[in-house]
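Course assignment 3, question 2. Fill in each field.
Student: A.L.
Task: Predict the tertiary structure for the chain below.
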Amino acid sequence: MTVKAKESRQVEKVRRKLAKVLEEEHSHFNKENLQNVRASIHKWLNRHETDRFDSAEQHVEAEERIFTFNENKNPSEVRSKFVLNLLNELKNEEHEHDDTLRGRIKKSDFES
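Answer field:
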């Protein structure tokens, strides 16, 4: 049977301090404070309602107004030499693997 060693005074002191901090933080979570936060969020949403748009109705207008992600159809140029080298290595690796796997898998393997 193993017996745990008694905690040092420093560990006990730190443990009490942490417990006190946690208890203080949890005391701020009450229904009144949560209602206040909820109300402030609703006020913020209402105040910024004019900035929102309906994506279904205003899709074309939104593209004109803001820059939208186009699934990397037109990516920006890579300026970093490190990233360019990695990109070239990845492209070369793709072609190398194509040659090594050629002939190993046949279409007839998948047909039953």
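Instructor remarks: Residues 81-101 form the longest helix (21 residues). Residues 9-52 form one domain.
Grade: pending
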